[in-house]
Specification:
The protein is built from three helices and six strands; from the N terminus they run H-E-H-E-E-E-E-E-H. It has about 100 residues and is α+β, with helices and mostly antiparallel strands. The chain has a two-stranded parallel sheet with strand order 1-2. A hairpin with a 4-residue loop joins strand 3 and strand 4.
Length: about 100
Amino acid sequence: MSFARKYDQITGRGAEIIGITVDTPEQNQAMIEKLLLPYSIVSDPEGDDVIKRYGVWDEKGRTAQPSIVVVGRDGTILWSYTGRDFADRPLDAELFAALDAARGG
């Protein structure tokens, strides 16, 4: 799934997309500009602010495992998917079902 291409379908379900990486803010901004991403990417270089809290820190590689997390308004994890590599993504239908369930629909 390309989140940029599915952006309207995701936000139409009341969700917000935020990318979180170990890259610098400058690297993230360059990626946003290069790929014309309609969402923000934030930097968590040591994984301490968000990545480790969601249990997707790869200690060996000192980076985040490629993951998608649906978080409720109260901060609870409602659904998550962790891929084997950057190209391993859930089916669109899986994510959309999780987002629909999160908003009670």
